[in-house]
Amino acid sequence: MQHFISKNKGPISGGLVAFIFIGLAVFVLGNLSGYEAKQLLNTSMSGINMLCNTIILASATILALLLTLLGISTSTKSRLKNQHYVQVLNIAKLVTVLFVVTLIVFQLFNIPITEAENLPTAWFSYIYWISLFFSSLLSGTLITVILLLYKTVTNIIKIVGLGKDHYLLSDEEQEEIENTNEDA
Hints:
The protein has six helices and no strands. It has helices at residues 2-7, 9-27, 34-75, 82-109, 122-161, 171-183. α3 (34-75) packs antiparallel against α4 and α3 (34-75) packs parallel to α5 (122-161). 22% of the residues are buried. The chain is mainly α and 184 residues long.
């Protein structure tokens, strides 16, 4: 896990900044009474459900596109290091966790909490903050996944499409590129 974090500081930082920014924007609202939180929950639930639907759809699409990326990676003439496949595996793991967590959050937020009559109104402010925390967390995680995917795709474009020397090429492949460049 520590290796994953050290190799992907940029994408993880991007997701973390998004999470903090969204969380702080919501925190500016300040303290809410239970009744105000209940009204805000009524208003925001459709948006949170739409966010969850979007993340679920995006996660499933990204998993399918990773198969295409693997097809391109294995069919190329260039020999890629195992690090490339570990990078794709890490994206697949993160996107799968994101998919499952978002599906669970979606199901929890579809419980008609605001219709409950025996729930103390003070609880609504806690439920509201929890919903905002999870929506911020899910958004930040999706941004991290997109940035990781961008990094992987640009690496493949540099290697396969542009034929550039790259750290993900096997040592034999890099020597061939250097010999070709010296002969030219």
